[in-house]
Amino acid sequence: MEVHENPSNQHTDNASRLKAIIETAIDGIITIDGRGIVETVNPAAAHIFGYQPEEIVGQNVSMLMPEPDHSLHDKYLNNYHRTGVGQIIGKGREVLGKKKDGTVFPFLLSISEVNLHDKQIFTGVIHDITELKKTEAALRESESRINSIIQTAVDGIITIDTRGVIEMINPSACRLFGYDESEVIGRKINLLMPEPDRSLHDNYMHHYHETGEKRIIGIGREVSGLKKDGTIFPLYLSISEVILADRKVYTGFIHDITRQKVTEERLRRYAAELERSNRELQDFAYVSSHDLQEPLRKIQAFGDRLKMKEYENLSEQGKDYVDRMLNAANRMQNLINDLLTFSRVTSKSKPFVETDLNEIARDVISDLEIAIERSHATVEVGPLPVIQAEPTQLRQLLQNLISNAIKFRKDDVDPVVKVYGKEVQLKAHMTATPGDELVELHVEDNGIGFEEKYLDRIFNIFQRLEGQKYEGSGIGLAICRKIAIRHGGDITAKSKPGVGTHFIVTLAKTHLKE
Asked: PAS domain: from which residue to which, for each copy (predicted)?
């Protein structure tokens, strides 16, 4: 026996199911007739507009619209019926609705036209976007605030993509590097770097993308930047990596540390000069007040006794000798006191100029020609750099070191003196501040040498290790140290008795402008 489903039952089930969907939908659903009169409204739509369903059904749908749509809605419908062209039917768009309490709010409205066998109806689906619009507004406000911070920041801020191309640069960074925004957007970031970083930057980025090894991202460090006019300046750079929805970018924060670095260099040199000055002054004061004044006091004391007790027994010539001796002793006492006073005053030296150390070395060897010939010495000079210096002082420094190397030779070996230079960078990437780049002057000999435990003593004023065998006051190496410190460096030595001595003098290539 075959059972046939009753078509009327199936229709009832479909209608019930459809009604259940409409009644429970989250979005509002409203149907109107061709005149704009509401035929049905689901609970969600009634809730969205703040009405009970029965307050809306049978009313013109324009009751749910603010002006000007409220007054113009009938006109919209008539135009559609006449022309068949709709502003929203079959398209959907963002419009404004009006709640029962008068509140106006935004929603997405999509309208479909349904032609039944006996009439035409329109169904509108309403999606409340009030919270979405609030979120969008908050996001816009947040973006605006962040943009304001970036645009007014004191420090420079630059964003680049993974290829190193500049996407954003703020006004501070433009001022710092001396460019207009239009000159750098779309250009590679290495435009703002001196060598060697300019040529190596693509390698740095490739290395990071390959290995993930962070050398500066999330760490920050001091580097050098290059301005449009060619000036190199020191900056502190910190980089953050930002993952966007579809790509990765890097944001660099740039803090100009020119003033800080110059101050640090001034303080470093001032401290070194002060330490040397204090040490020399203490040594000099001790020698002057003790070693020199002690025999002078004896001359004065015995001279005074001679004048007091034996003066009448002396001939006129003898009396004249005693008077002259005492006057001379007093003058020497005054000279020593004046010398002590003078030693506390820093005399002004000549300004630094571009100085070719090769020329200085040639002049020194020429001056020492007789001593070199007499001792059968050989002086080998390698390439030396050009630096900012006081030529007279560097000539004195090299002359002291080379003449010392010849003087303190072994009796049975001809002296060989080697002079050469090396360039030193104290910290990678830093070349902008005076003192970042140094020059080392090396003077090596095959002479008598000395015990390195005496290293500190040999640079002290009037210090001598060899007694009376070699002539001199012992002030030469103290002068060398003073000259080296004044030129932003220092002096040290390596030595072994009977093997020879190797002096290393450091000098800054450039200096602070007074």
From this structure: 14-84, 142-212
